[in-house]
Structure formats: C-alpha cells, structure tokens
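Rotation project, supervised by the postdoc (A.L.). Task for the rotation student: set up a whole-complex structure prediction and record inputs and outputs verbatim in this book. Inputs entered:
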Amino acid sequence: MNWSSWSDFIAMGGYAYFVWIAYGVTALLVVVEIVWIGRERRQSLAQALTQRKIRQWSSP
Amino acid sequence: MAIHWFKYASPASFYTLAGRLIPWFAGAAAVSALIGLYIGLVLAPTDFQQGDSYRIIYIHVPAAWMGMFIYLVMAGWAATGLVFNTRLSGMMVQSLAPTGAMFTFVALWTGAFWGRPTWGAYWVWDARLTSTLILFFLYIGYIALRASIDDPRRADRAGALLTLVGVVNVPIIYFSVRWWNTLHQGASVNFGSTSMASVMLAGMLVMAIAAWLYTIAVSLARVRSIIIEREQHSAWVGELLADGRATERTT
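Outputs recorded:
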C-alpha cells in the first residue's frame, strides 16, 4: 500500500488534476462504447425484425 | 484432431460462437482491469523522478499498444478478405475500427495529461506523437470511407485497401523513438532488460491483458450486430428472429 489515507490517494502527490482527468476520460469512453454497442445490438435486431414482417406481409 | 476452422468463417456459425465467448472475455477483462488498477494506483510506489503523475502510464501504455495492435489485426483481416473474399473478414475490420480509434485517442489524451506535468506541454510535434495522431486519422478515415459507400461488399474492399496502405505507419510509430531523437521517452519494456520496478511492470502488463480481453469482448459484440444487419435477408437470421429467444435475451 502506497497511501496513508484516502485523501492522500485522491491528491495523487499533487498531480490529482492530471491523473484523474486521464483516468476519468478513459473510463467515460469505455462506458460510452459499451452503451453504444448495446444500442447497436437492439437497433440491428429491431430493424431485421421489421424487414422480416414486411416480407411476410408482402408475400403471403 | 480435426477442428473445423472454416466452419467459423461463415457469419452464421461465428455469430453463435461469438455469443458464447463474449461473457467470458468481458468478465475476465473486468476482473483483470480491477486487479491492474489496484496494483497501479494503490500498491505501486511513487516514481522518484515523475512523482505520481507517472501513474497515467498504466492506461497510456496499454492503450498505445492496443491502438497499434488493433490496426495490425485489422490489416490481417483486410488482407484475408481481399485474398479469400470472405464476408466475415470485412465485418471484423469494420467491428475493430471504432475500438482501435478509441484506444488511440486514449493514448493521445492520457499522453497529453502526462506530458503537461512532465515536459511542460500537452502537445509537441514529436515523431512518436505525430505518427500516433496519423494512426488516429487512419481509423477515422476508415470509418468515414465505409460510411460513404452504400454497398457493404464494396465498402469492405475499399476499406481493406485503405487499411493495408496505412499499415506502414505502425512500424513508424513503434520505431520512432529509436530512429529519431524524440522528446518521447524510449520503450519502458524491452525483452531482457526493463527500466521499471517489477510492481510497476506487473501493473502495466495486467492492464495490457485487460485491454486485450476488453477488445476481444467488444469487437465480438459489435460484429454480431454487423452480422445481423448485413445478413438480415438470409434464411438463418430469419430462423433466429422467428425463434424469439434471441431478441428477448438482449432487450
């Protein structure tokens, strides 16, 4: 363990601004990518389902 | 022992295989990221020269490696697609590009926030930084090129060519710190000798493993949507949708 207290950890030896912006933006991008992939999945399935229904109606 | 590799070259069986693999890779990625962050942010000692600003390298270095490596994998799939004319190859290139762009951006971003306290500047036109910026533009260029071509098979071929032309940039990034006198420091990890404490090295390698596992999970998940989108008129997607379970499980 490198830190003596929680606030010591947050302070990052005076480099809190740089360290946490670097880590924060990375974490944000990872979350955005995962959410985006979930959306793509739902959209592709919904679109394929719609297409399928249209084909079923047009050729009984 | 006969493994039918070519069986998985068909989008239909790859779709099922990917679906089974994703939870394992995603879980392993999350666990290794937590371990890596614990080692890097909590256990590892403060650097005697750079202070705690050096802790940015635990994401910077794995992201930079991944940005370059994903491009090489894309180029491999692109070449396979051009030679064998397989549909899955183009889909994999398409699936990997956004994640490659994301990691390259993370490498540039974290590098800037490490550079400011260490060099006194967020950005310098150094050989390594500039060639990494070009890598980012190559990813963006690939995505934009795809988006501009309606026919997916033509987009595959055009994208594959762009990817293969751009691959020359990867060795330029990798060797830039040796070929030119750069401000960017030399490689921290070398085979045989390493200029890092072993705890620091362990943290960085665990984070690199996490980045690998994450990339595999994310690109497999994305390629499944691409497969559905591009194969929606095929009989097997019809059966999959008729089954109903496939759509319920995801929503």
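Student's summary: The radius of gyration of chain B is 20 Å.
Supervisor addendum: Chain B touches chain A through 44 residues (CB under 8 Å).
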